[in-house]
Amino acid sequence: MTWKQVFTSSVGKKLTMGFTGIFLILFLVIHAGLNACIWANDGGEMFNAGAHFMGSNWVPRILEIGLFAGLLLHIIQGLMLEMSNRSKRATGYAVAYGNGGSKWYSRSMGLLGTIILLFLVLHLSDFWYPNRSSQGFLLGEEINLFTKMQQEFSELWVVIVYVLGCISLGYHLAHGFQSAFRTVGVHNKRYNLMLMTLGYAYSIVIPLAFAMMPVSMYLGWVH
Amino acid sequence: MEHQNINLSLKVWRQKNSNSKGAFETYKVNNISTEMSFLEMFDVMNEELITEGKDPVTFDHDCREGICGACSMYINGKPHGPWEANTTCQLHMRAFKDGETIVVEPWRANAFPVIKDLMVDRSAFDRIIQAGGYISVNTGNAVDGNSMPIEKDKADASFAAAMCIGCGACVAACKNSSAMLFLSAKVSHLALLPQGDPERSTRVINMVAQMDKEGFGACTNTGACEATCPKEISITNIARLNQEYLLASFTADK
Fold first, then answer.
1. For testing contact with chain B, the best of A11, A86, A171, A172 (most B CBs within 10 A)
2. Mutate which: B20, B107, B176, B204, vs A, most A CBs within 10 A
3. What CA dihedral angle connects B206, A77, A210 and A154, to 10 degrees?
4. Measured between beta carbons, which residues in chain A are less than 8 angstroms from residue B243?
5. Fold of the B5-115 domain
6. Would you call A186 an interface residue with chain B, using a CB distance cutoff of 8 Å?
7. Where exactly are the structural domains of chain A?
């Protein structure tokens, strides 16, 4: 069986989703951890030092390429699977099965993922692009990312959009965390309960931490 | 529950053949005993239709005792109707109230084309089994049943997977029309036993390939299949299948 056969089969495509999903889950921990430096309340000194390191050191810059590769794989494969799965039932039901057998968010991973993708475009153009372009390849003066955050999150609508993005992420993770591990083959009873508990806890804690960043900036808790 | 007779409206999918366009038709069925099974209620209705010179509703059925997997009706938005862990033939009319309208549809999936009315072609499942759902044994005298020791937990898990009757409710319930619960039950019950070991890798690879060829969707672990399965096959089997596939594909020679 060739690699092509593996990764073009339905199970193989799901393996791609599962492995990249777990990779992105790990990334979110690092992202949330670094951003939490804003709460040091030192005028953004610690946060800016972290931001400078992530943009100037070659190790995170190389990892960043891996991150974008994983992200793109997850997005493209996810959208393709969603379209393919939707095409498998040409005639739909008159009465839907609904929530009797499954949670709404587990059936809405494509929709939630698309919302997160739209949010991501906004988020990258808000912070990642202006920051990276000033840090090297366009040769400008490095921007103060902490001040930039304060500027962005002084507008209520931006804060609301970010919080909504975090809620979508929470529901995406509530199903995605457990599902990813099932997809890569974890079936043992001893891990099932552990992963379920960990999955729900993760999908609340991480999006909540992210959502609190714009909220605490807007409310002036961070200075 | 006290025995009584009820009157019902049935909204049934009628379709002449796989090429024609179907539509719902509404029928009134009166004086239905609550002790009748759902299929017996259809028998009564069909007798009336025949007497009136009309075409009776075609539906699939065989054993009528919940073990063959032939009956396949999507009743009021759930495969096999409202009861848990139950087949259509074992669904009884006491599940419904007097005057209720019941919507009956065939399984909906491109891989299960409608043959007529409520009967669909499920031969895709047979072809998946043919692709690897078997073991090779030498002919000759039957081997003593206890000659090969098997751990109790594994035997039980294997038996729980082997309970699958291949009715297709999992496909019907899945938003992706995925056959993964069926396939994983078939792969699991052999993978857990020593008899299934020799063809372990080729089995899972070939059966997944056949499933894809038949036009079923991919699994997104929503759990709708498990919730509707008349034999309560666990989605844990799907995770086991994924592991079998991962190991088989990553350890393949070429």
1. A11
2. B176
3. -170
4. 184-187
5. Ubiquitin-like (UB roll) (3.10.20)
6. yes
7. 3-81+106-218
Measured in angstroms, the CA of B166 and the nearest CA of chain A are apart by 19
**ipTM of this predicted structure:** 0.91
Whole-angstrom distance, CA of residue B98 vs CA of residue B105: 21
Using CA atoms, how far apart are residues A191 and A196, in angstroms rounded to an integer? 8
Domain ranges in chain B? 5-115, 123-136+150-250
A190 touches chain B (CB under 8 A): no
Is there a contact between B215 and A88 if contact means CB atoms under 8 Å apart? Answer: yes
Distance from CA of B223 to the nearest CA of A (A): 6
Task: Encode chain B (254 residues) as per-residue pLDDT tens digits.
Answer: 578 999 999 999 999 999 999 999 999 999 999 999 999 999 999 999 999 999 999 999 999 999 999 999 999 999 999 999 999 999 999 999 999 999 999 999 999 999 999 999 999 999 999 999 999 888 888 888 788 899 999 999 999 999 999 999 999 999 999 999 999 999 999 999 999 999 999 999 999 999 999 999 999 999 999 999 999 999 999 999 999 999 999 887 76
Q: Nearest-CA distance from B108 to chain A in Å?
A: 6
Let me know: does B170 contact B223? Beta carbons within 8 Å.
no
Token code pair at residue B133:
């759902």
Q: How far is A183 from chain B (nearest CA, A)?
A: 6
Distance CA(B18)–CA(B20), nearest Å, equals 6
Q: Say how far apart CA B201 and CA A135 lie, in whole Å.
A: 51
Substitution target from B101, B178, B221 for chain A, most A beta carbons within 10 A:
B221
Homologous superfamily of the B123-136+150-250 domain (CATH): Alpha-helical ferredoxin (1.10.1060.10)
Helix (H, G, I), strand (E, B) or coil at B3: coil
